[in-house]
Amino acid sequence: MKWYLLYTRSRYERVVEEQAIKAGFQAWVPMITQLKQWSDRKKMVSEPLFRSYCLVKCNANELARIASLPGAVKTIYFNGKPASIREEEVVKIREILENQQYKDIAVTALTQGDLIRVKKGAFANCIAQVDGVDGKHQLMTLILEESGFMLRIKLHADAYEKV
């Protein structure tokens, strides 16, 4: 069994996750908690890491059944095959979200387009590309090979080395 990507209606990620679990599948919507600011208040809000996507672990022959769940739109395809995420990538994403180890950390001495190797943490030994430099923080883009997703994170200065 593999983890597959299911595209959902807008803001239906958790509904699809619940429906998949009720149908007997293992499902997960990676959630992040962020501080949101309105004109009159600030509030911590939990949101999906990948908007309009739910990860479902199943066999490829069960994808049509999963895509017919209430709130599901379709199975995502990449290069003509159902898009999947390897188990180790799901574990790494879970670890990052649970430990909050890559949160708002400034990185210096890199420029846009530089390649780095992550030295520690859940993405140790992964190659990442510096996506942007805004003077204060730098975003690294990690490419999840089989799914076509890019995950943008901020790294501690001692957590990477230039390739």
Any overview of this molecule?
- There is one protein chain.
- The protein is of the alpha+beta class and 163 residues long.
- 17% of the residues lie in helices and 40% in strands.
- It contains three helices and 14 strands.
- The chain has helices at residues 13-22, 63-67, 87-99; strands at residues 2-8, 26-28, 31-37, 42-48, 53-58, 72-75, 77-78, 81-82, 84-85, 115-118, 127-133, 138-144, 149-153, 160-162.
- The strands form four sheets. Strands 1, 2, 5, 6 and 9 form a five-stranded antiparallel beta sheet that branches.
- The radius of gyration is 17 Å and the shape is globular.
Q: How large is the share of residues in beta strands?
A: 35-45%
Helix/strand-derived class? alpha+beta
Gyration radius from CA atoms, angstroms: 17 Å
Instruction: Output the helix-strand order.
Output: EHEEEEHEEEEHEEEEE
How many discrete domains?
2
Per the CATH scheme, the topology name of the largest domain is Alpha-Beta Plaits
Q: Indicate the CATH class of the largest domain.
A: Alpha Beta
Q: Outline the low-pLDDT stretches.
A: 104-108
The CATH architecture category of the largest domain equals 2-Layer Sandwich
Describe the sheet with the most strands: 5 strands, antiparallel
Tally of extended strands?
14
CATH superfamily of the largest domain: NusG, N-terminal domain
Overall shape: it is: globular
What's the helix count? 3
Q: Helical content, roughly? A: 10-25%
Average pLDDT figure: 82
N/C terminus separation = 34 Å
